[in-house]
């Protein structure tokens, strides 16, 4: 707090305290400057992990195809539980008897969208 009539250090003829920008020789506090370099082991480990994850996604065994090479026909609709059970039974019967088409019925609850 400055009182009325008091002088600043520069006005009183005193030198201002040295700061970091003026190059007065004061050392900067620790932590300033660039971060330490990353070791080659860390870089190699990160790259290896990424390659392993990508290879796992590409080479992971795929689930069996229920259509067995037949043309898939997908029906999407709104239905209650009763109709869904009836249509599922009809789809299973159709899929067992038809050799060219494979039907998939996908229903969502009424008011679900």
Structural features, described:
The protein is α+β, with helices and mostly antiparallel strands. The protein has a domain at 71-108. It has helices spanning 40-59, 81-97, and strands at residues 71-78, 101-108. It has a two-stranded parallel ribbon with strand order 1-2. The protein is elongated. The mean pLDDT is 78.
Describe the structure in brief:
The protein is α+β, with helices and mostly antiparallel strands.
List keywords for this structure.
113 residues, alpha+beta, two-stranded parallel sheet, 2 helices, elongated
Order of helices and strands: HEHE
The Rg value, from CA coordinates, equals: 37 Å
Instruction: Report, as a whole number of angstroms, the end-to-end distance.
Output: 66 Å
Give me the side-by-side strand order of the main sheet.
1-2
Q: Specify the number of helices.
A: 2
**Shape estimate:** elongated
Task: Give the percentage of residues in beta strands.
Answer: 5-15%
Parts with pLDDT < 50 across at least 5 consecutive residues: none
**Number of extended strands:** 2
What average pLDDT do the residues reach?
Answer: 78
Q: How much helical structure, as a percent, in the residues?
A: 25-40%
Could you say which structural class the secondary elements and strand pairing correspond to?
alpha+beta
* Sheet having the most strands: 2 strands, parallel
């Amino acid at each position: 707090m400055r009182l009325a009539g008091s002088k600043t250090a520069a006005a009183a003829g005193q030198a201002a305290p040295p700061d970091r920008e003026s190059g007065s020789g004061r050392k900067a506090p620790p932590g300033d400057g660039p971060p330490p370099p990353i070791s080659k082991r860390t870089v190699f480990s990160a790259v290896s992990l990424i390659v392993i994850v990508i290879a796992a996604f590409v080479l992971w065994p795929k689930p069996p195809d229920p259509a067995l090479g037949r043309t898939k026909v997908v029906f999407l609709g709104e239905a209650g539980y009763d109709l869904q059970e009836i249509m599922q039974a009809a789809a299973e019967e159709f899929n067992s008897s038809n050799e060219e088409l494979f039907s998939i019925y996908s229903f969502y609850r009424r008011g679900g969208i």
